[in-house]
Write a structure and sequence with these properties.
EC number: 2.7.7.89, 2.7.7.42
Catalytic activity: [glutamine synthetase]-L-tyrosine + ATP = [glutamine synthetase]-O(4)-(5'-adenylyl)-L-tyrosine + diphosphate; [glutamine synthetase]-O(4)-(5'-adenylyl)-L-tyrosine + phosphate = [glutamine synthetase]-L-tyrosine + ADP
Organism: Rhodococcus olei
Structural class: mainly alpha
Family: Belongs to the GlnE family.
CATH class of the domain at 342-503: Mainly Alpha
Number of helices: 41
Helix content: 55-70%
Shape: elongated
Cofactor: Mg(2+)
């Protein structure tokens, strides 16, 4: 610390004193601190966290005291360095406590002289005196029931003022070392004192509640207030919710009203009193008897509820009843680690907490982010619960005490415990300083660009320049260092696989021996049994309960896998999925208890390379593998409900990227559901195509809506144009496959009064952004938006107005472009504009009098070119599902030619679906029933095979492979009995060959 100048020195400049506001010289003049006698005062003031704030507050205090009162305080400050440190420390670090002092400046005397922390009894007596409370007639022994003489708003004001005085004294002692050479209050002392203050506050609130609820007589009910969380552990923050649980005898309406009034008074006067940790949470009864509590925890409580009981402590009210509550429930806490899936539940809860922190705040969140306070607390609590069953020395409540006990017991290295304790206390110090500034509940560091706030925080945390770095640099370095240390030690202590073994220690855990595993795998048809054995060892390793369950499950699972096309790949996928689900408490339980789920999962994993990654990212789909009232629950989901869910979920986000991410997440879930049901033979081809088309349209709509909302926010006004997306090709027909892109047209219409050029430019920007967002690299199946069917192809503008489209199709459209319009369907965007676009193109795609013969000749010519030029080099025309003989292109071109010729006279041909158009063709007898059925069967067979190829290989492809395991897999996924590749291929060739004969007749007619 720099030695202050002597009294003979001149007054330093305000800048050197840390006073940067232009009013500082005048304020110093007001205080009379401009002479050499005030040098020591000024140097003390300069060490305050915010010297300007402290100076402004002093001026307000002076104004409140008047001349004589200020003279007394001024004289005390010049002689009492302790007062100077405490006063300047608190008013320079806390604007809220400065306001409190300025409202009643005489309270400065609380900080003068030898100030000691009051005991818990002294705190309670002071608060009770503020409302003139005396023991209630029902108070006996440990039943701390008082009756206040002051109630209502007056009581709240009196309690609030007294509590703030107590808080000011504690904060002043805590902050005094910043300014003067005062003792530093240890972190635990601050936490204990704040908890004692909370106990006293609850006692006073109960006194007011008793007088309010029982104004005419004594309170006959026994009510115990149990402190939970940080208050229960006596490590409370300056500003924090105080978690409580109420136990009463009897638990009647009067007692419930008493507890509710206590919460209301406490929340109004002191801090938020929260009873959400009670049985059944906020939906449960506010007050229960001891027997009711015990019954609930024996039968219904979840693991996290036992974890919360670690910190339960009687705080006030009937302390004897409160101690009975703790004594009754405490033994259950230390057997919680024996509960089913205990460790994964604790880990899953920690991850849920992390996920609730917005991504942009995770690096600034010192309570819930990575490397935060919660990491330390969760790791410590887990170790306590695991080892505390046998070692009673670990049954302590505070985090620091628990770390000390864990180190003493040899469960944590002494250095690790010391380092974790140091980092934990540092982060709690930062948390305390953040909360003191405005007495607001916060755990978030100021943003990096707010250097002024960060510099204040550094000074309030007593961080000084180290000769190489200023205080701000020291703060940033310390925050990074401690967060990194917590992350490193948390991973070491919390995520070690050993923890599950410790929690599930069982010397008789079942596991497959290496020799038996190899023999069994080979007998079941595994082509690489050594690799499979490695997977099995990984799945059954350790003495954990999960390992035991896996060892019990695997013989049956392996048998089911052996009936799939690729059991080796299936086992690898199962290992990957199991590793991904290691923290999901329900996963193995479902496989163990619901055989249908396990069997269906093995079929899926052993059949498809497309689905495992989806299931890993959308594991909740596994729950749908179970049986429901109408069969597998995979069929209980309607595509339209999924589409609505995608749109609703994405609409919650203003940022288009996050909106699309939300839509992608639900799409992933739906793809996993549809693909799994497809592999299991639960959906037919039309159902699969409709579901895939629906989810594609919903994602496209979600992206469009999000981009438009974002654009309107940027513009500060409504969009200048309406924008609709017209699905083309298979999207327009509702017949998408797993590997299909989305062919679309974008059409816009300027809003009334909008400039058309600007509106069209805006619409093009929106369309480009939508395509970019959806086409961004991702491990999910791709989302490619293809606008190649637009007028002038890839050389034309992406977006046109309705009028422009009409003019183009009337004057310039080629035959193939008119043919493409047969599958145009409005899929998202402005519904009215989309409908008007469809009505506009009807005159072109359903021409009056039918298509001309010259157009028919052009269609035949183009089809011949497609057949000869577009088939990939080396592809087999007999087995190419899209462009091969009797494949999808053949069927679709045939149907479209019939539509162009007859749609003007057969309204039912005004349809974008190939299958529905075939129905209309058959009903109108434009083709024979046999021909229609041949075309239908070929389209369904080729589509099923094409989808099966993607499901088996995991990537889009149109070419059926030659004989082998892949073709067998395609056959089995395509629903061919027994997966006989030869019979499947023979069937495919026969169906497509017969359909090709129909195609040739229709195109040659």
């Amino acid at each position: 610390m720099v030695k202050p100048p002597t009294a003979r020195s001149t007054i330093p400049g305000v800048g050197r004193l840390g006073l940067v506001e232009p009013t500082a010289p005048a304020e110093l003049e007001t205080l009379g601190w401009v002479n050499t006698d005030s040098v020591e005062l000024l140097w003390s003031l300069s060490r305050a966290a915010n010297a300007d704030l402290a100076l402004r507050t002093l001026v307000r205090v002076r104004d409140g005291l008047g001349a004589d009162g200020w003279a007394e305080l001024d004289a005390a400050l010049r002689t009492d360095t302790g007062l100077r440190g405490r006063l300047f420390g608190v008013i320079g670090a806390s604007a809220a406590l400065g306001d409190h002092l300025a409202a009643d400046p005489r309270q400065w005397r609380l900080l003068a002289g030898d100030v000691l922390l009051p005991t818990g009894k002294e705190l309670a007596d002071e608060l009770l005196a503020a409302v003139a409370a005396v023991p209630d007639a029902s108070a006996t022994g440990t039943n701390l029931v008082y009756r206040a003489a002051i109630t209502g708003p007056d009581a709240v004001l009196a309690l609030r003022k007294t509590y703030r005085n107590q808080l000011m004294v504690l904060a002043a002692l805590d902050l005094a070392a910043i300014v003067e050479n005062e003792p530093v209050l240890p972190y635990q002392t601050v936490g204990h004192q704040l908890s004692d203050m909370a106990d006293a506050a609850l006692t006073a609130a109960l006194a007011v509640a008793v007088a309010t609820i029982h104004p005419d007589g004594p309170c006959r009910s026994r009510l115990a207030v149990i402190a939970m969380g940080k208050c229960g552990a006596r490590e409370l923050n300056y500003v924090s919710d105080v978690d409580v649980v109420f136990v009463a005898e009897p638990a009647d309406s009067a007692t419930s009203r008493l507890a509710g009034e206590l919460m209301r008074i406490g929340t109004s006067a002191f801090f938020e009193v929260d009873a959400a940790l009670r049985p059944e949470g906020k939906r449960g009864e506010l007050v229960r008897t001891l027997d009711s509590h015990v019954a609930y925890y024996k039968r219904w409580a979840k693991t996290w509820e036992f974890q919360a009981l670690l910190k339960a402590r009687p705080a006030t009210g009937d302390l004897e009843l409160g101690q009975k509550y703790v004594d009754a429930l405490n033994p259950m806490v230390w057997t919680a680690a024996e509960r089913e899936d205990f460790v994964p539940e604790v880990q899953a809860m920690r991850r849920r907490v992390e996920q609730n922190v917005p991504a942009e705040l995770r690096e600034r969140e010192i309570k819930l982010g990575r490397g935060s306070l919660r990491d330390v607390e969760f790791a410590v609590q887990l170790l306590q619960l695991v080892h505390g069953r046998a070692d009673e020395s670990l049954r302590v409540q505070s985090t620091v005490d628990a770390l000390t006990a864990l180190a003493a017991g040899g469960y944590v290295g002494r250095d690790d415990a010391a380092n974790l304790t140091a980092s934990y206390e540092f982060l709690r110090l930062i948390e305390h300083r953040l909360q003191l500034q405005k007495l607001k509940r916060t755990h978030t560091l100021p943003p990096p660009e707010d250097e002024e706030s960060l510099r204040w925080l550094a000074r309030a945390a007593h961080m000084r320049p180290d000769g190489r770095t200023d205080s701000l640099g020291v703060l940033n370095a310390e925050i990074r260092r401690n967060a990194h240390r917590v992350r490193r030690l948390h991973a070491k202590l919390f995520y070690r696989p050993l923890l599950e073994s410790v929690a599930r220690l069982d010397k008789e855990a079942l596991r497959l021996s290496p020799d038996a595993a190899v023999r069994q795998l080979a007998a079941l048809g595994y082509t690489a049994p050594e690799n499979a054995l490695g997977h099995l060892k990984a799945l059954t390793s350790g003495a954990s309960r999960k390992g035991r369950i896996q060892a019990l499950l695997l013989p049956t699972l392996l048998e089911w896998l052996s009936d799939t096309p690729d059991p080796d790949a299936g086992l690898l996928a199962y290992r990957r999925l199991s590793e991904a689900m290691v923290d999901a408490d329900w996963y193995l339980r479902v496989l163990r208890d619901e055989g249908a789920v396990a069997q269906r999962l093995m079929i899926v994993l052993g059949s498809s390379a497309y689905i495992p990654d989806l299931l890993i990212k959308a594991p909740d789909v596994l729950r749908l593998f179970a049986d429901g009232p109408n069969g597998a629950r995979l069929l209980d989901v309607e595509p339209q409900d999924v589409a609505r869910g995608i749109l609703a979920s994405s609409s919650r986000y203003d940022d288009p990227g996050r909106a699309v991410a939300a839509a992608r997440s639900l799409r992933r879930h739906e793809l996993a559901r549809v693909a799994s049901a497809d592999v299991l033979g639960l959906l037919d081809v039309p159902q699969v195509c409709r579901a895939l088309s629906s989810v594609w349209a919903a994602v496209l709509g979600a992206a469009l809506d999000a981009v438009i909302r974002s654009s309107e926010a940027e513009l500060g006004e409504p969009a200048p144009a309406a924008l609709a997306v017209i699905g083309m090709g298979r999207l327009g027909g509702g017949e998408l496959g797993y590997g299909s892109d989305a062919d679309v047209l974008f059409v816009c219409e300027p809003r009334p009064g909008a400039d058309e050029t600007r509106a069209v430019k805006w619409a093009n920007t929106i369309a480009d952004r939508v395509r970019t967002l959806l086409g961004a690299p991702s491990t999910d199946p791709p989302l490619e938006v293809d606008t190649g069917l637009r007028p002038e192809g890839r050389n034309g503008p992406v977006v046109r107005t309705l009028t422009s489209y009409q003019a183009y199709y009337r004057q310039w459209a080629q035959t193939w472009e008119i043919q493409a319009l047969l599958r145009a369907h409005a899929v998202t965007g402005d519904a009215d504009l989309g409908l008007r676009f469809l009505h506009m193109i009807d005159e072109f795609r359903y021409p009056e009098g039918g298509v001309s013969e010259s157009a028919v000749r052009e269609i035949r010519r183009i089809k011949a070119r497609v057949d000869s030029e577009r088939l990939p080099r080396g592809a087999d025309p007999a087995t190419h599902t899209k462009l091969g003989r009797g494949g999808l292109a053949d069927i679709e071109w045939t149907v479209q030619l019939v539509q162009l010729r007859h749609a003007h006279e057969v309204p039912s041909l005004h349809n974008t679906s190939t299958l529905e158009s075939l129905d209309a063709i058959g009903a109108a007898e434009l083709l024979s029933e046999t021909d229609v059925e041949l075309l239908r069967e070929s389209w369904l067979t080729a589509t099923k095979a094409r989808n099966a190829l993607v499901l088996v290989r995991g990537k889009p492809t149109d070419q059926l492979p030659g004989p082998g395991r892949v073709l067998s897999a395609v056959a089995q996924v395509a629903g061919w009995p027994g997966g006989d590749a030869s019979e499947f291929l023979d069937h495919y060739l026969r169906v497509t060959r017969r359909a090709k004969s129909v195609v040739e007749r229709v195109f040659g007619a």
